[in-house]
Amino acid sequence: MSNDAPVTVVIIDDHPAILSGMEAWYAASRRPVTVVASGGSVKEAWVEPGSSADVVLLDLQLGEEGLAFSSLRRLVDAGRQVVVYSMRDDEKTAVKCLDLGAATFLAKSEGREHLVEATLAAADERPYVPPALAGALGTNARPDRPALSAREENVLIEWFKSESKELVALRLGISVKTVNSYLDRVRIKYANVGREARTKASLVARAVQDGLVEVEDL
Amino acid sequence: MRRGGREGTGARAAESSDGPGFSERLVTRTLERYGVWLRSGVVFLCSALGVLSVDTAQLPLAVSLLLPVLLFCGVRLYSLRNPLPFALLWTLDAAALVLTGLSQLALDGVGVEVMVAAIISISAITFQHEWAARPTTGIALAGLGLAVTALADILSSPGLEVSALVRILIPAGLSRAAFLIVRARARSADRAAAARAASRREAEAAAARRATEREYLATLHDTANATLLTVSHGDGRDWSWLPQRARRDLEALSAVPGFETGSIDLAALLSCVPEGEGPNRVRLTTHIEGPLVLPSGAGLAIFNGVREAVSNVARHAGVREAELRAWMDEGGTVVELSDAGRGFDPASVSPRRRGVSGSIIGRMEAVGGSASVTSQPGGGTRVHWRWHDRARAAWAGDESVERPQNAPAPQSAAVNLIRKQLLFGAQLAALLISLVSQFSLSLHQLTAYQSVYRPGWAQTAAFVGLLVVAVAGAAYLLRGRPIPPMVRWCSLGAVLAVSATCALTLPAERLLGPEDWAFGLIGWYALFLLADLRVRVFAVFLGVHVGLNAVVVLLSASPTAEAAAVLGIATVSNCGFQLSVGVLTRVFHNTAPIAGTAAAREEELRLRERINEDRQKDHKERYRALTATTVPLLVGLGHGVLSPHDEEVRLRCGVEAARMRRLFAEGDSVSDPLLNELRACVEVVEHQGVTVNLAVRGQPGDVPVEVRRELVDPVAVALGRTRSTARLTVVWTSREVCVSVVSADCADGLSAGDTAGPRRSTPDAAVSVARTALGGSVWVEASWTKSTVSGSDPT
């Protein structure tokens, strides 16, 4: 997929105000992003035209049903690229979504700055780590977490705190490009220990191919 | 002496006061009085009996020898109330002994011999108590008694009767030992009482500190915090009221907090509640049924609460009228402020807002009263204060001391403790006397006169029986437990059986003679079994015991007058002495409250001293903390040096207001106090129109309050200087907690591209602060590493 190709999205959210806000953000994107379908039910992602969209944007809290982890799992199993976004801004939910094979996780408060980038990255099967997710990965204390270097953890946490890669770079005395590569490496390490899914295969393969990680690092 | 942990601190506390504790002083004083009275009584009775037993020819000589002895006792009695020189008393005691010894040489008759033995023996005993505070004198006088007896023995008859000396030596030694035992118990009671008092003092002082702290925070909230917040909001309004208000705030903050003692007329106070100035004025309709006299602490708490509530009407109710009513009812004083304004839902008020919870309710609770606020949206607001007269009684001493409902309890507990220890000591002493007497004198008598008893085995069995009683009792006493009633009464029955056995198996004419080992011993046994009961019980037992022996004597032989006198002297010197010891234990029982009360009074004084000390110290510290921050602002505003129109001044006010809010939140009991304090700061800046995006990661842990202060402060400053939006984050990792704020447009002195830190304010400060500025945004981060050894900082 080339970097300028149009991207199609299906939005699953039951709140009309949020839907229109997202459409506005996508409309402002330099690379065309089209919302081909939207609605308050996961069904939208399984029927045309939503079933052929490049990216599924999934609100984790739909109606009264609780968290939609099982919907996420089925979408991932069907090979879909899912961006989860949620009002729930806690690390457990974020880490669990990554484990299930979501392309990335966004807190709703991060929508304005990160929704378009996260969607494009998912469409290109590139890693993308927004601040809320970075904070969750940086403080993750689960025993099955991948081994991160001190520097990687540091970059994650500073990114979470500042929401600005320029500030992180200034604070740590590195370049913004280096900040990005640390974030990508972490994402790939997580993909590598995660469930068998399209995200895992594509992210790891691409990372090795690009020389972002060595095979023996994983 | 066992001294561990708490008891050790108690002992120090007791020693730090003036010398011996109250129980010990009580014991020493009581024993001295007891000793003098006992000796005087015995001397009077014995010399009367002695004079009766001598020939009429020797009567003048007897009187001239014994009268001075009685006189000396009188002087000694007089000295109990009116202290006389130590040397004089000492000489009189010695002279009495010598005169008594002389009378044995000068006068004839068995009666005199018994009398002299009884007087010297009792003197050797009582000197140990009379001179308890000067043991050397007591021992020297006892030694003199021995010498006098020995000399009189040698001079009146050839050869020295060693047993007579032993008869003086052993009781005197036992007397000293008994004193030491009882004093040891008294000291232990003093130590325990002191330890208990010390911990109670800590608790009460801490409660008083908390109450003062609450009052201080409420004052701070109503004065400086309200003023600074208003300035920080900074709309272009009329600021003419500000200088006067700032000066008044300063006065309120510099006044030493605490409540003056005495009473106050609340009606007079309420009639001058300020109605506010300018647009904030509230017209008060007052119905006050005065006078309303109540303790000044409570009066001021109501007055200050009403003042805050009135300013709340102006700020929040949306009306300009309120009604203030105050009256007395049967429960106490009631004050009510009501308005017909827009009201609010009390459940929706943030727990970090202090106006109602701190200034009105908390302040009233701190002095022991109660206050409540009832309101509903659209239904007006009613604030209700109540001061109970019951509370007044409990707070009569010092209103700032929080007292439990059952205030006299600690004192009566102390009395019970002292009483228990003293009676326990008396029982132990009686047990010691019983055993030593049994195994020294009595055992000697029993073996020496084995052939006299009919049958011999009965007396031996009686001896063993007593021993069993001693062992059974000791098994309880030595473990510090009371003797159970069952064991007590069985043992007493056994002792009485021994008394009867011994009286019946010894020829009547030998009763109370050198062959009678049991008569004197029985009383000590009974005393050790009964010392903690009423003395009446012991007296009845002694009566039965003496009666039993008297009946045996009267039935089997009709004694001569002289023999009867000898029997009488022996009975008095034995049972009379034992009875007097029984009375003494009762005296301990009855005078324990005196020691308890004296201790309580002294404790009350110490507590008050301590509270005042704490209050002064805390006040100085609090004021010092404000001098660097709030005081210069208020001074500047009060004297027009700083203008509320200046943005920099408004920002400084915002920062100080946020800092104070953090301070108010410090005492909240919440699961994550750090987050709670941060939220308190966030609420202040959000009120000024700043959007704060707060996110937390990781597992919250414990952070000491002083570290929290250092962690939050730089962040509060950055937040306070933010104009539009800020991102506030808390990150907990296993080693570290980090609070960070990124302010999109911070009015800070940092120039773009600067990065500083992490830096500590002092080399050993626990918290390090890092600052980074880029474009318009400023990033301030405070972090604390949990272990004392700060880990390698990867940045």
Written overview of the protein:
The complex is a heterodimer of chains A (218) and B (795). In chain A, 47% of the residues lie in helices and 13% in strands. The mean pLDDT of chain A is 84. The two termini of chain A are 26 Å apart. Chain A has a single domain (7-217), classed as Response regulator (Rossmann fold). Chain A is globular and about 45 Å long. In chain A, helix 5 packs across helix 6 (150-162), helix 6 crosses helix 7 and helix 6 crosses helix 8 (176-193). Chain A has nine helices and five strands; from the N terminus they run βαββαβαβαααααα. By secondary structure, chain A is an alpha/beta fold. Chain A has helices spanning 16-27, 69-77, 91-100, 111-123, 131-138, 150-162, 165-172, 176-193, 198-209, and strands at residues 7-12, 33-39, 55-59, 81-86, 104-107. In chain A, helix 2 links the parallel strand 3 (55-59) and strand 4. Chain A has a five-stranded parallel sheet with strand order 2-1-3-4-5, with helices on both faces. Chain B has three domains: 5-199 and 410-604, no CATH class; 259-399, Histidine kinase-like ATPase, C-terminal domain (Heat Shock Protein 90, 2-Layer Sandwich), CATH 3.30.565; 665-785, 2-Layer Sandwich (Heat Shock Protein 90). In chain B, the strands form three sheets. In chain B, strands 8-9-10-13-12-11 form a six-stranded mixed sheet, with helices on one face. Chain B has a five-stranded mixed sheet with strand order 2-4-5-7-6. Chain B has a two-stranded antiparallel ribbon with strand order 1-3. Chains A and B meet through helix 5, helix 6 and helix 7 of A and strand 8, strand 9, strand 10, strand 12 and strand 13 of B.
